[in-house]
Specification:
It is built from 7 helices and 15 strands. The strands form 3 sheets. Strands 1-2-3-4-5-6-7 form a 7-stranded mixed β-sheet, with helices on one face. The protein has a 5-stranded mixed β-sheet with strand order 8-9-10-11-12, with no helix packed on it. The chain has a 3-stranded antiparallel β-sheet with strand order 13-15-14. It folds into 2 domains: about 30-210, Ribonuclease Z/Hydroxyacylglutathione hydrolase-like (Metallo-beta-lactamase, Chain A); about 235-285, no CATH class. By secondary structure, the protein is of the alpha/beta class.
């Protein structure tokens, strides 16, 4: 199976980047003109919480991913920016990224910018972005996969805000269509790999200073996982739950549904490659 990447990984976790729990609700300087506020609320799939990124411009602040609508977090953003917000940019429609957009817009009047196919609420003042559009000096980079409306935002000096597309502490959940797509996710990883950015700033977890190492490892891990799942398939029927028990360690019950969705997206990719097939909710090796 070939996706255009060399995937010899002696230590499959060597690429991971962790951090101790950062201060919540405080603007933390990451690099010149860029600050990070970590949400005060977090869940089992968000590591220490969602990163809201604040990019200083000559006339105000651009906010990327305002997080949930938790009042404490919204107040932290308002206090850090003085309410002078030019744009609210959304990497994708999930509530831990988009949920606070309405309140922040009501408080500041800033327009909300999303992917053109986003499921964002039309009651907001919304700018719909095409791949390659520039807004507030940031370029929208279409990176579908985790969701079909996922976009990253690139500065002119080698910084890429990656949302949930690329993180250092974990691989991303990639659900099957119509919400996500594994093939598109892997193509989006290759797109970022080709860009040669110097710094990746994800929506969960710490900044990533070795983008090539991390992105190549994420791509390799998906290829390895496809091969592992293919090796589990036989000519005898196996249900999705049976395959999940064999393919993943489900120690955390909160991650069970995420595992099932990710497994299904891998199976659908194997089906697209004519390696697997599904008959009456059972999976077989072709």
């Amino acid at each position: 199976m070939c996706y255009g990447a060399s995937c010899i990984m002696s230590n499959r976790n060597a690429w991971k980047v962790y951090e101790p729990p950062p201060p919540k609700g405080e603007p933390l300087c990451v690099t010149t003109g860029i600050r990070r506020i970590v949400t005060t609320d977090c869940g089992p799939m968000t590591y220490h919480g969602t990163n809201t990124w604040l990019i200083q411009t000559e006339t105000g602040t651009i906010v990327i991913d305002p997080g949930s609508d938790h009042p404490g977090h919204i107040n932290s953003i308002l206090n850090a920016t003085g309410g002078n917000i030019e744009y609210i940019l959304i990497t994708h429609w999930h509530a831990d990224h988009y949920g606070g957009a309405r309140e922040l817009q009501e408080q500041t009047g800033a327009p909300v910018a999303v992917h053109k196919n986003s499921l964002a609420n039309e009651q907001l003042e919304i700018i719909r972005l095409e791949d390659g559009d520039v807004i507030g000096g940031l370029q929208a980079i279409g990176t579908p996969g985790h969701t079909l409306d996922h976009i990253c935002f690139a500065t002119q000096n080698g910084v890429l805000f990656t949302g949930d597309h690329i993180m250092g502490w974990s691989t991303s959940v990639v659900p099957p269509a119509p919400e996500g797509n594994l093939r598109l996710y892997m193509e989006s990883l290759k797109l970022v790999l080709s860009r040669k950015d110097a710094l990746l700033l994800p929506a969960h977890g710490p900044p990533l200073h070795e983008p090539q190492l991390v992105v190549r490892a994420l791509l390799c891990r998906r290829i390895e996982r496809l091969d592992e799942i293919r090796a589990l398939l036989t000519k005898r029927p196996l249900t999705l739950d049976a395959l999940a028990l064999r393919a993943y360690r489900l120690a955390d019950k909160h991650k069970h549904e995420a595992v099932r969705l990710t497994l299904l997206s891998h199976l659908e990719e194997l089906a697209r490659l004519n390696i697997a097939r599904c008959v009456e909710e059972a999976w077989y090796l072709n």
